[in-house]
Amino acid sequence: MQFMLLFSRQGKLRLQKWYVPLSDKERKKISRDLVQTILARKPKMCSFLEWRDLKIVYKRYASLYFCCAVEDQDNELITLEIIHRYVELLDKYFGSVCELDIIFNFEKAYFILDEFLLGGEAQETSKKNVLKAIEQADLLQEFNIGTFKEIKIFLLGEI
Amino acid sequence: MPAPIRLRELIRTIRTARTQAEEREMIQKECAAIRSSFREEDNTYRCRNVAKLLYMHMLGYPAHFGQLECLKLIASQKFTDKRIGYLGAMLLLDERQDVHLLMTNCIKNDLNHSTQYVQGLALCTLGCMGSSEMCRDLAGEVEKLLKTSNSYLRKKAALCAVHVIRKVPELMEMFLPATKNLLSEKNHGVLHTSVVLLTEMCERSPDMLAHFRKNEKLVPQLVRILKNLIMSGYSPEHDVSGISDPFLQVRILRLLRILGRSDDDSSEAMNDILAQVATNTETSKNVGNAILYETVLTIMDIKSESGLRVLAINILGRFLLNNDKNIRYVALTSLLKTVQTDHNAVQRHRSTIVDCLKDLDVSIKRRAMELSFALVNGNNIRGMMKELLYFLDSCDPEFKADCASGVFLAAEKYAPSKRWHIDTIMRVLTTAGSYVRDDSVPNLIQLITNSVEMHAYTVQRLYKALLDDISQQPLVQVASWCIGEYGDLLVSGQCEEEEPIQVTEDEVLDVLEGLLVSNLSTPVTRGYSLTAIMKLSTRFTSVNRIKKVVSIYGSSIDVELQQRAVEYNALFKKYDHMRPALLERMPIMEKSASNGPTEIVQTNGETEPSVEPKHPPPVTQPANQANDLLDLLGGNDVVPVIQTTMPTKPASAGGELLDLLGDLSLSGGPAPAPAPSVPTSQPPFLLDGLSSQPLFNDIAAAAIPPMTAYNKNGLKIDFTFERANPNPNIAVITIHASNSTEADMTDFVFQAAVPKTFQLQLLSPSSNVVPALNQGTVTQVIRVLNPQKQQLRMRIKLTYTLKGSPVQDLAEVNNFPPQSWQ
C-alpha cells in the first residue's frame, strides 16, 4: 500500500497515512486531486479505479470515505477487506464509531492503524490481538510515569 | 503562563469557526501560543502542543516548526511523549530533510528498550518512513529482533525488514539466516508478515528464489499451512465470514505464484491445493471471491495443467455474471491478462464481455472495450464490429479516440470485404469523426487509394456525409481529399455499389468552397479543400470557376493558404502545360511499416507535399532558383530537380512544387526556345514498374561499382549505388564530395538534373562545408526512378565558396555503369 486517506463527504481530510516518501507539497496535491476525483464518482460505480499510475481502492462508510492506493500486484478485493477490518477495529475500540470519534480522537485512530498495518502491509490478522495491544499501550500511557518497571510486572501476566 | 488548552478543547473551538477566515485566525493564535511554549522548553506540555500541531497540520496549515519538538518527545522517557513524538515524526518529517537523521539514535535505543510497546513504536516508525541511511544503520537491530521469540516484536520486525530491503536491497542477504524458522510459527501475525518478507525477497532476487525453492523447500511448507487453514474448523480469532484468515491465504497464494512461475516441479507440487481452494471456497461474500481471485492469478501465472487453467477461466466467467460490480471489474482485468495465452477459453465468454460494454461504470466499460478488441478475429468480426460501433456511438468522449483507433485496426486486419471496410470507416468518421486521431487521416487515405474498385462508391458516400455535416475535421479532410482525386467519378455517376447520385460539377465546387469559408474548418482542412479544388481543374470542365477561387485565396491572410493559392495560380499562368501531369490521379501508395506518414516516392509529382499537412512541408528553394536551373540546363530539355531540403535555409512557409515534371521535349543539346509539347498523361509509374518483369535481381545490384562523376579544381565527387528494395526501378545514388585543396569549401551546393523519362529526388546533404585536404566528405543521397530503363545521364551543377570567392561549375555525367540503369 502506498497511502491511505480518510475524508468526509465535504472533502475534509480526517486521516492521512503515507507509506512512500513524498514532500508535504506533493502530498497535499495528491490528496486534493484524488479526493476530488473520488467525490465526483457516482454511488453505483465500482470501488476501484486507475488514477495516474496507481490503483485506487475506496469505500464509503457512513459519512467517511476510506481510500487506499495500492501497487499493481496487490489484490484489490483483499484491500477492501483490509479497509473493512480497520473499520471494525475502530468500531470495537470506540464503540459504534462515527466520524466525530475520529475527528476528536485522531491520534488514537492513527495508533490503531499502526497496530494493524506496518509499512503498508497487515501485521496482525487477528482482531483480538490488535485490540489487546492497543488496550495495553493505552494503559501504559495512563500511568505516564518515568519507569516502566511496575507496568511491566502488571502486564507480564497478560502477555 | 496559563496551561495550554487541551487538544479536544482546541478541536472543539476550531470546529465552531464559521468561515475559513475565522478558522485561520484561531489557528494562528494557537500556533503563536504553541511557538512561545516551545521556546520556553516546556517539558510538561510539549506532548499536548505537538498533538495540537498535528491536528492543525491535518487541516492543511504549516507545522514545520514542530519537527524538532517531535524529536525531543521521542527522546523523552514518558510513553505518552514517545507515542505522540513518533506519530509526529511520521507525519511531519520526511526523509528528504536531514533533520530526520537525528531520530536514528533514539530509534536505536528504543529498539532495545525493555518495554515491547516502545520497541513496537520504534519498529513501526522505522518501517514506515526509514530512509536508506537510517535503514543501513539500524538493519542489525532489526535482524536481531527478527530472531526473538516474542511474536509481537517478531511480526513487526519482519515488516520492518521488508522496508529495509526495499530501501537498501544490498542488505537482503543479512536477513536470510533469520528466515529459517519463520514459517514454523503458530502465530498468524508472524506467519503473515513472514510470508510478506519471503515474497519480497523472492521477487527481488532470482538467487533467493532458487534458494527458497530448493534448499528451504518452501512450497511444501506453504502448501501445508494453506491446507490447515482450509481444513481446520472454525477459529473465532481469524474467521472472516466463515473463512479462516483470508489475509494469510491470499498472501500464501501470492508467494506460491512467484515460486511456481516457470518452474515445473513447484507448479506440480501446488496443483492439488490450488484445485482445492478453487473448488471449495465459499463465493457468497467478497472474502471468498478475494481468495478465488488470487487463486486464479496464481493458476494463470504458473505452469499449471490445462484442466486447472480451464477451471480458472470458468471462475472468471462466473465472476463476470456476478452482481457485484467490483467482481466484474476484477474479472475483466484478469481476462485481459490471459486473453493472449488462453484465447479460446476466453472466447467462450465473449457475449458476456460484450454485454459489459453497456455497463454504467467507466472502468468496467474501458476494460470491456479493450477485451473486446482483443477477442476480435476473422470469424466474429461482423458481429463484434456491430457491437463496437454501437458502443462508439454511445460512449463517453474519453473513450472515443481509443475506440476509433481500435475499430480501424480491427477492420484493417479482419475486414471480410472492401465494401464492408469502407462502410465501417465511414461509420466511424461520421459518428466519432472529431475524435479520430490525426494520424488516421493519412492511413485512411492510403487505404482508400488501395481499394481501386471502390473509389466511386467511397467518394459518393463521403460526399453525402459532407452534405450532412462539416464539423468533424478528420471526416472533412478525408472527404475533400477523395473528392479532389475522384471528383470525376462522382460527377459521372459511375457508382456500382449503390444508387449513383446526380451531382453537378458546380454543386461539388459549392461544397468545397463552403469548406473554405466555413468557421468550422481548421486551417489544415482549408488546405485540403483548396488543393482538392485545384485537382478538380483537370477533372472538371468548369476551370474558370476554379481559377477564380484560386486567385481569390492568393491574398488570404492565412499564409499557408496564400502560398498554395499563389503557386496554383502560377500553375495556371506559367506552367499550364504541366498542370495535367501534376494533378494526375495519385498512384497506389506504398504503406510504410510504421504508423507514420507513408513514404511516397515522388512520381507524377504531387502538388501537396504529403497527405499530412500537419508536418511542416520540406523547405525548398524559392521559385526563382528553380528557374535558374531551368535556364542553366539549356532551357526545358532536361528536367530539373529542386532539392527537398537545405539545412542552411530558414523554414519558409511550406507549399512548393517539389518536382517540376512535365512533357518537355528531350532535345539533344541546349535549345534556347522551349517547345511545349501537347501534354500527354503519363502512366502511374509505380503500377507500371510493378507489372514489368524484374530485369535484374538483388545480387546483381550489390555489384554496381562506384564511379567518379567529377574531378576538377580539387573537388572530387564520387557516386556509389544501391537499389531501393521495394521498387527495383529506383536507383539510390550517394554522392561523396571531397576536397583536396588547402582551404575548406563552404556554402557547398550540389544540384542535378536528369532527362525527361527519369525522375529524380535529392535528399538533404550531410553538410555544406567540404573540409580541406580530404579530411572529410559531404554526402548526399539521390534517388532516380528509371522505369523505362534508359541509359542514365545527368547534368550537375556545383557551387561553393573557396577562399572567399564563389565558384560555379557545370558538368555532364555520362559514365554511369550499365548496371545502374539496366
TrEMBL record, chain A:
GO molecular function annotations of the record: clathrin adaptor activity
Q: Where is the AP complex mu/sigma subunit domain?
A: 1-140
Tell me the superkingdom of the source. Eukaryota
Any GO CC annotation of this UniProt entry: AP-1 adaptor complex
**Keywords on record:** Coated pit, Cytoplasmic vesicle, Golgi apparatus, Membrane, Protein transport, Transport
Q: How does it sit in the membrane?
A: Peripheral membrane protein
Keyword check for Membrane, yes or no.
yes
Q: Which GO terms describe its biological process?
A: intracellular protein transport
Where, subcellularly, is it found? Cytoplasmic vesicle membrane; Golgi apparatus; Membrane, Clathrin-coated pit
Query: Assembly and interactions?
Result: Adaptor protein complex 1 (AP-1) is a heterotetramer composed of two large adaptins (gamma-type subunit AP1G1 and beta-type subunit AP1B1), a medium adaptin (mu-type subunit AP1M1 or AP1M2) and a small adaptin (sigma-type subunit AP1S1 or AP1S2 or AP1S3). Binds to MUC1.
- Summarize the protein's role: Subunit of clathrin-associated adaptor protein complex 1 that plays a role in protein sorting in the late-Golgi/trans-Golgi network (TGN) and/or endosomes. The AP complexes mediate both the recruitment of clathrin to membranes and the recognition of sorting signals within the cytosolic tails of transmembrane cargo molecules.
Similarity comment: family membership? Belongs to the adaptor complexes small subunit family.
Its name, as the record gives it, is AP complex subunit sigma
Q: Which organism is it from?
A: Sparus aurata (Gilthead sea bream)
TrEMBL record, chain B:
- SUPFAM superfamilies listed in its UniProt record: ARM repeat, Clathrin adaptor appendage domain
Tell me where in this chain the GAE domain is found.
702-817
Gene for this chain: AP1G1
Q: Which InterPro entries match?
A: Adaptor_Complx_Large_Subunit, AP1_complex_gsu, ARM-like, ARM-type_fold, Clathrin/coatomer_adapt-like_N, Clathrin_a/b/g-adaptin_app_Ig, Clathrin_app_Ig-like_sf, GAE_dom
The name of this protein is AP-1 complex subunit gamma
Cellular location of this protein? Cytoplasmic vesicle membrane; Endomembrane system; Golgi apparatus
Look up and give the membrane topology term.
Answer: Peripheral membrane protein
Naturally occurring in which organism (per UniProt):
Sparus aurata
Which PANTHER family would you find in this protein's record?
A: ADAPTIN, ALPHA/GAMMA/EPSILON
